[in-house]
Specification:
Elements (H helix, E strand, L loop, with lengths): L1 E6 L2 E4 L4 E9 L1 E12 L6 E7 L5 E4 L7 E6 L4 E6 L8 E12 L3 E7 L3 E6 L1
Length: about 120
């Protein structure tokens, strides 16, 4: 009932930049929070950055990306962005969008949804 569509991944050289986007659609009553996670080959999925929309946009970042990545939102489009600068080879991973969404059908339901993932590869 909620779809998250990611875009913007790709191949970039170290030091370069990419911008990821994630658009949420469906029977959405409210988007409570959105975030980006990543999973490198052979590693566990980890939080990269998130934004709490219920608090007006408080953000948090993994230590590894602080100062390089910026998460932002466009509430009118139910879209979250991740601007990634000064990319490093260790940023290579599949990046997943996550959304905490309240949907409205017969009743309200709050759930956690994931996108399909987008590959980011940083060459040295």
């Amino acid at each position: 009932q909620v779809q998250l569509v990611e875009s913007g991944g790709g191949l970039v050289r170290a030091g370069g930049s990419l911008r990821l986007a994630c658009a949420a659609s469906g029977k959405i009553f409210s988007v409570n929070a959105m975030g980006w996670y990543r999973q490198a080959l052979g590693k566990q999925r980890e939080l990269v950055a998130d934004i709490d929309i219920t608090t007006g946009g408080i953000t948090s970042y993994a230590d590894a990306v602080k100062g390089r990545f910026t998460i932002s939102k466009d509430l009118h489009k139910n879209t979250v962005y991740l601007q990634m600068n000064s990319l490093k080879p260790e940023d290579t991973a599949v990046y997943y969008c996550n959304a905490d969404v309240t949907i409205a059908t017969i009743e309200y339901f709050r759930g956690d949804y994931w996108g399909q993932g987008t590959q980011v590869t940083v060459s040295s």
